[in-house]
């Protein structure tokens, strides 16, 4: 915002009689300001908590549902559900379950487009594991995309987190992967829209 103010002030100084220049500059500044507000918005709503459900960690669209080997921490086959966040989605990330953070790691990496098959292993990312009260561990990853070059996280190992609680933020287009037990019943299909902290992704048996 300071930069926008500086640009408008400079135009006013160097082109004091050009109303057309001022109008275009102010219009563009307002558009940029609205876009920034839209991107960083964080809606407030009640979380319907349920220990047997996995809630969406992010707003976006389901792009992957498949069985996959999780090789970083769990070392076993899991059901993977991936959610792609476009630049117009809310980019706040929320806890899919209630539990303690049993593992956390940040990985520097590339910036492939978020839907690229190798983005989950080669892009900048964080890996977070939440251990539920019954011992079940749910792994999820924040993955930066081609436009998202900064991931924010608010958790560390040992933290006790509530379902739906904010755990991070990814700037611009990005993706979140969930690795669920093979016994989990998936409640969404590819192409479905999701709302972080609202959409039920899966139910645990």
- Structural category is alpha+beta
Q: Characterize the main sheet.
A: 8 strands, antiparallel
Which percent range fits the helix content? 10-25%
Gap from first CA to last CA:
49 Å
CATH fold annotation of the largest domain = Glucose Permease (Domain IIA)
Task: Pick out its properties.
8-stranded antiparallel sheet; 205 residues; single chain; disordered N terminus; Glucose Permease (Domain IIA)
Description of the molecule:
The strands form 3 sheets. The protein has an 8-stranded antiparallel sheet. It has a 3-stranded antiparallel sheet with strand order 1-14-12, with no helix packed on it. A 3-stranded antiparallel sheet has the order 4-10-8, with no helix packed on it. The protein starts with a helix and ends with a strand. The longest helix has 21 residues, at 19-39. The chain is an alpha+beta fold and 205 residues long. The chain is globular, with a radius of gyration of 20 Å. Helices cover 19% and strands 37% of the residues. Strand 6 and strand 7 (137-144) form a beta hairpin. It folds into 2 domains: 2-39; 53-203, Glucose Permease (Domain IIA), CATH 2.70.70. Residues 3-11 have low confidence and may be disordered.
Would you kindly provide a brief summary of this structure?
This protein is α+β, with helices and mostly antiparallel strands and 205 residues long.
Topology:
Elements: H1 2-14, H2 19-39, E1 53-55, E2 60-70, E3 76-85, E4 92-94, E5 99-107, H3 119-122, E6 125-131, E7 137-144, E8 151-153, E9 160-161, E10 166-170, E11 174-180, E12 185-186, E13 193-194, E14 200-203
Antiparallel strand pairs: 1-14, 2-3, 2-13, 3-11, 4-10, 5-6, 5-9, 6-7, 7-11, 8-10, 12-14
Helix pairs in contact: 1-2
